[in-house]
UniProtKB/TrEMBL annotation:
<protein>
    <submittedName>
        <fullName>Uncharacterized protein</fullName>
    </submittedName>
</protein>
Length: 98
């Protein structure tokens, strides 16, 4: 579980939430295979980030978050259009959850 450090984790979660919303919007405009699976995982990741923003203890489990993100990455792998967002999200998830 993630503990909240005053300001830093909540701020990182907010930044990550913005990026996840951008990725969801971008994949929504494309013909992406398994978009429903991608959307489900992005929604769950967004829920985790909202919980971190609110400082709700025990709601974001690193193993689940990393697994969800890994699933999204694998489904979007090799698509250059998404590469900048995927890279930015990966960096922030690594910062928060590893």
């Amino acid at each position: 579980m993630i503990s909240i450090e005053a300001g830093t984790t909540a701020d990182s979660a907010t930044e990550l939430l913005v990026l996840l919303d951008r990725l969801r919007a971008q994949t929504g405009r494309e013909d992406v295979p398994k978009r429903e699976v991608i959307d489900d995982n992005l929604n769950l990741l967004a829920d985790d980030m909202r919980a971190l923003q609110r400082g709700v203890p025990g709601t974001a489990h690193p193993e689940l978050t990393l697994s969800r993100w890994s699933k999204v990455q694998s489904l979007l792998g090799g698509r250059p259009r998404f590469a900048p967002l995927v890279s930015a999200i990966s960096s922030r998830i690594e910062h928060l959850f590893r």
